[in-house]
Predict the 3D structure of the following.
Amino acid sequence: MLRLNEKNLCARVTSDEVSRASASYADVLACCQGGEERHAGSLGWLHVDDWASDDTIARIEALSARLREGADTFVLIGVGGSNNASRAALCALGARGGALDGAHRVVYAGNTLSAFELRRVLEDLEGREVVIDCVAKNFETLEPGSSFRLLRQWLVERYGEKDAASRVICCGTPGSHLERLCRAHGYTFTTFPEPVGGRYTALTEVHLLPLAFAGADVRALVAGARAEEALLRDGTADPTTNAAWRYALIRRLAWDAGLRVELLSFFEPRFRWLSKWYEQLFGESEGKDGRGLLPSSAEYSEELHSLGQYVQDGTPQLMETFLDVLEPSAEDSLVLGGSDIDDRFEYLDGVDFWDVNKASFAATRAAHASALPCPTLELDRLDAEHLGRLFYFLMLSCYLSASLLGVNPFDQPGVEAYKNNMYALPGKPGYEDRKAELEARM
Ligand code: PA5
């Protein structure tokens, strides 16, 4: 299960206020539950089975089995929503070097223009058997476009034209230039769902393919998401008790109380990339029209010794949402033995790190909650099913939260502004005026 623990909300936002707000914003929830007409082209993710049916999963598993036979390295070329979710899931599931089974790893390109970094990616492919997957919804973004060419050329040099073609997959919009390119050159083409924006693709083949390649249990991931969706659609349930809705309301009340930042904090470093995914999801969805909480994150214990000071005592503009896992896995236990050396830590003899980490979490949350609202998202376990729940829960909360703020959760006009400048400067045809204007400002 995934639960929202509200025990550590503080005076700035209370559970009673959340319940009252649920009634006054009931129309927003009803609208979102019904699938709003004005967002019909972006709500494909809301119904998990539309893009992750058993048939789709079987097809993904078959493709991934073929790829796994001939390759040990899957290069995911994509930026933003096109790479974040699978990276978040693999890290959370405990992948080492991008692999869960020790043999099939996923590495990343298409999210940087740093020559240094891209050289490292190419160096790292030496001696490996490689497939590449270019994920690009509109296939215009410069970062994935340039990396795709670089890696295609590398593949041809390494394997020759024909073998290279069998090692290229592209995930794009049906009918796009990317699809035509695939048909013309014999690459495998997979579908980037049209009614799903990049940051809402966690539970579609955009991410299920790399996850299946790495050996993740994609069926369990999707089952978890379906279970969360069922909670949303349960017509008999009291909406005031829906956790995704209450979390969205807490965020709205925090905004009304003058808070401007939400930290997603955790004591489990496996959530490192999940926090990046969360930052992208909420940042691009909500940060517009001069509104929205800035989504940021804190990885404790490390950042207790840096950000912790600010959180407790700095400008009072934060709420802090903790991510917690209740049950340890077999790998989550490590007992500290006694010591003959008098290091004055004898009170830790025989203590399990799991328990000390939990104590640190409880101590931190109690301290921070004296100053700011600290809701907690609790997962029973950190496995594929619970990650599927978490992905769906946060995407739904984000949609609800943006709707409560009155902003469009599915566009990203700010990102487009930078992208257009980026097209102009390297000289893309059609952007000549913009290029001259930008050069005058440099
Ligand atoms: O969430 C989004 O829509 C964006 O972050 C996109 O995923 C990102 O800009 C990449 O877009 P594309 O796949 O079209 O290159």
